[in-house]
Amino acid sequence: MLVNGTVVNRDSVIPAPEQNYPVYYTYGPYLVPVMVEASSPDEALRRYLEGSVPPGLAGLPADVRLLGYRLDTSRGLVRVNFTYTDSVHQLALTNPDGIRRTLTGIIATLTGFPEVKAVMLDFEGHAQLGLGQCSDLLRAPQVRPSTLNDEQTIGF
Questions:
Q1: CB 83 within 8 A of CB 65
Q2: Helices 86-94 & 96-111, crossing angle to 10 degrees?
Q3: What is the spatial distance between Cα 119 and Cα 77, in angstroms, rounded to a whole number?
Q4: Half-sphere exposure of 53 toward its Cβ, with a 13 Å CA cutoff?
Q5: Distance between CA atoms of residues 32 and 22, nearest Å
Q6: What are phi and psi of 29, to 5 degrees?
Q7: How far apart are CA 8 and CA 11, in angstroms?
Q8: pTM of the predicted model as reported, rounded to 2 decimal places
Q9: What is the spatial distance between Cα 31 and Cα 147, in angstroms, rounded to a whole number?
Q10: Sign of torsion, CA 54 60 62 68?
């Protein structure tokens, strides 16, 4: 028998098929979903961080790394810790609305998975990234943003 082009028999382990999920980048004042293959929220986050940002869209600066990811399945809470880099600090100072939308996009990406009810973002313990414009999004559980239900989301 063939499954997705692979010969299988009764002893074969058939991996679950990958599914497409949106990761959200920013385009000016908008969030833009870009479909990626991912079977879990952490895989989608890694694809968001490691993949190249589509032309014209913005995400976290390229030097930001994932330090920690933990999913508490009993509460549906994901805790994410990123590196706090000079480029994150500069982005927060020069484009506070942009970094806020970027963090909202990450929250939207992770809460798009049914097992994730809320996300806690951290940048190495920093309570503020710049002047505090997005401090309310850091180190506190965030549910799926209502932004996704209004005109702030566009598709390409």
A1: yes
A2: 110
A3: 6
A4: 16
A5: 9
A6: -85, 10
A7: 8
A8: 0.83
A9: 8
A10: negative
